[in-house]
Design goal:
This is Trehalase family glycosidase. This protein is mostly helical and 436 residues long. It has helices at 5-16, 35-46, 50-62, 86-89, 112-122, 126-150, 164-167, 176-179, 193-196, 205-220, 225-231, 239-259, 263-284, 321-335, 365-377, 381-398, 424-435, and strands at residues 17-18, 22-23, 33-34, 73-74, 236-237, 285-286, 291-292, 294-296, 301-303, 403-404, 417-418. The structure holds alpha-D-glucopyranose (GLC).
Length: 436
């Protein structure tokens, strides 16, 4: 590891922190506040500037809607350097949206519960952080209530996402078969991402037509959850998203017990938790593939591919010891060759694997971070150590980029960092892994 990497990571986080009290993920490419980014970023700040960690969380929570929903992007500033922006998403169409914070009408993985718990674990002044948690945790609970009440039409304890951007893994090959069920018009729009980043590393225009089409449909119905559940061509139970929800349930149970009182909320969380974990294992575990998979709720069929999301249930303590052994074996066989850094975002043995294109193959530090803790949870210390040292090696060779080539052969001359540079969560989660 290079000597000055800690200072560099802190500089990136400090630079990306905006006066209003939130961080941009990366200059130019992502000029607003993103939901799951903010959680990871707060964990990074907690290691050296707890006040910023609190502000990051607080600003995001301020954007919550009257129905408990927390949006995926909060458009704190006006700029035409990003598409699609506030005038496209029009969150104000929803009768319970937050008019003070223009946003998207979709969400992102629910990381806030476990972010609060991590902040507490990291804190040196525990009382101070517990007070902060006490003042804010109910909003996170309210957000989970929204998920269980509005996003689980068959009452299974598994929530759906209605857009690929809600998954956080935007253009994963997992969605390819869903795009085939749609035939959107060709929208006229001006991409902005490809003015910042090489288009070979980003989704295609035709893929964007599908993304925009789902939003148009949701807007036609003023972002009404029931209408979306009935009509969206994209309706998926995602193992990564549901793992984040379950881990955050767990974290809230622990934190409410620390705070004291709140018996009803703890009982409700425990009830959700039992049901969610049971359904997760019954429905999303694919024994033949040896992995957790996505389920297409619109077309009522499993989506049988292995991605880094397939291993995220380790982080939430969902698999049995036996299931953990099976999925870790799959991971090491398919993703863990000597010539590869852990962990590619999509099955490197699949013909859909693309090592340079966003979520179709590159390594992402946030998924590695989840995997690192997940493997430790189950006692796989050697593999956990490899995930950590691979992550540090990649970052030290390529810099704090957004995503990275998994093939070691690509690191001989040029560093292989892709997407946005000085990327906040790569810096934040590096700081956290280093301390653990
Ligand atoms: C990309 C990623 C998403 C992330 C966002 C901001 O859209 O796919 O996961 O939240 O960038 O960093």
């Amino acid at each position: 590891m290079k000597k000055d990497m800690i200072a560099e990571a802190q500089n990136i986080l400090n630079d990306n922190f905006q006066e209003i009290g939130y961080s941009i993920p990366s200059k130019g490419l992502y000029p607003f506040q993103w939901k799951w980014d903010s959680g990871f970023i707060a964990i990074g700040f907690a290691h050296y500037d707890m006040e910023k960690a609190k502000k990051e969380m607080k600003t995001l929570l301020n954007s919550q809607w009257k129905n408990g929903f927390i949006p995926h992007i909060v458009f704190h500033i006006e700029t035409d350097s990003y598409f699609p922006g506030r005038d496209f998403h029009l969150s104000k169409l929803h009768p319970e949206s937050n008019l003070d914070y223009p946003s998207t009408g979709m969400t992102q993985p629910p990381v806030l519960g476990f972010t609060l718990e991590k902040m507490y674990e990291i804190a040196t002044d525990k009382d101070d952080v517990l007070t902060f948690i006490k003042d804010n945790i109910d909003q996170v609970y309210f957000n989970h209530q929204y998920f269980y009440n509005k996003r689980d039409p068959q009452n299974e304890g598994l929530v759906y996402i209605y857009h690929n951007w809600e998954s956080g893994t935007d253009n994963s090959p997992i969605w390819d078969d869903i795009w085939k069920t749609m035939n959107p018009p060709q929208y006229t729009f001006e991409r902005r991402d490809t003015t910042h980043v090489n288009s070979a590393q980003r989704p295609t225009n035709r893929e964007y037509d599908h993304y925009l089409d789902i939003i148009e449909l949701a807007k036609e119905h003023n972002y009404d959850d029931a209408k979306i559940a009935a009509l969206s061509p994209f309706l998926v139970q995602d193992p990564l998203f549901n793992s984040m929800l379950i881990k955050s349930n767990d974290a809230m149970i622990n934190l409410y017990k620390l705070i004291g009182g709140n018996q009803e909320k703890v009982a409700q969380l425990e009830q959700w938790q039992a049901k969610s974990k049971a359904s997760f294992n019954a429905k999303l575990f694919d024994k033949e593939l040896g992995a957790y998979i996505h389920y297409d709720l619109r077309n009522e069929k499993p989506i049988r591919f292995v991605s880094s999301s397939s291993f995220s249930p380790l982080f939430a303590g969902i698999p049995s010891t036996e299931q953990a052994a099976i999925i870790i074996n799959t991971m090491m066989t398919k993703f863990g060759g000597e010539d590869m850094y852990l962990c590619a975002s999509f099955d490197p043995t699949s013909d859909r694997f693309n090592p340079e294109k966003y979520w179709r193959g590159p390594v992402w530090i946030n998924l590695n971070w989840l995997l690192y803790y997940g493997l430790k949870n189950y006692g796989y210390m050697t593999i956990a150590a490899r995930v950590k040292s691979d992550s540090i090696e990649i970052l030290s060779k390529a810099g704090f980029y957004e995503y990275f080539d998994a093939r070691k052969s690509e690191y001989t001359i040029d560093a292989k960092g892709y997407g946005g540079g000085n990327f906040s969560w790569s810096a934040a989660l590096f700081l956290d892994m280093l301390e653990n």
